[in-house]
Write a structure and sequence with these properties.
The protein has about 180 residues and is mainly beta. About 10% of the residues lie in helices and about 65% in strands. A hairpin with a 3-residue loop joins strand 5 and strand 6. The longest helix is centred in the first third of the chain and has 20 residues. The chain is globular.
Length: about 180
């Protein structure tokens, strides 16, 4: 499980760096954290509430309206000598809707679409992981110069024996490095 997680995270980070290097000029990174509610749909579904921070993300701009965004979440619960760990790593491609006349649309106010692929899993003596694919629709809203809020609703499908789905609602903060 740890090897798969490390490989997936390194591949996401490397692909983001390669994509960012192919664009001209330095662009600001988007460093963000999200609180969220995830509601499982189907058999053996669960609901997860993560407040104030459920996941961390880094957005690498690869164009005036697109950015590549690896995202990571880790939950560790321990008690009475038992430990339960869940994780999720995904890689999203944000496409910012609206006018392309304004350079740097990725840190302006507006709607975006975020398709993503990832891996999620757990460990509690036994371990299991599975792939997932999803899409989100969100809105960014600047608060001050380099700080924005971000709100998103998304849908994800987990590829497991008894395929499962989930709906997520996220509220986050984004800090831009420039």
């Amino acid at each position: 499980m740890t090897k798969k997680l490390a490989i997936a995270f390194m591949a996401a980070a490397l692909s983001a760096q390669v994509a960012a290097a192919q664009t001209s000029g330095p662009k600001p990174l988007e460093l963000g954290v999200d609180a969220g509610v995830t509601i499982g749909i189907g058999d053996n579904s669960t609901t997860s509430i993560s407040i104030p921070v459920g996941s961390a993300r880094i957005g690498f701009p690869i164009g005036t309206r697109t950015s590549l965004e690896p995202k990571f979440r880790l939950n560790l619960i321990s008690g009475d000598g038992d430990t339960f760990t869940t994780y999720r790593v995904d890689l999203g491609l944000l496409y910012h809707l609206g006018s392309s006349r304004y350079p740097g649309a990725y840190h302006r106010a507006g709607m975006y679409v975020r398709p993503f692929l990832g891996i999620s899993g757990f460990a509690n003596g036994n371990s299991d992981s599975n792939g997932l694919a999803g899409i989100g629709l969100g809105y960014k809203m600047p608060i001050v110069s380099r700080l924005s809020s971000r709100f998103e609703a998304n849908f994800a499908h987990h590829f497991v024996d008894g395929d499962s789905n989930e709906i997520g609602l996220l509220a986050g903060l984004s800090f831009f490095t420039r």
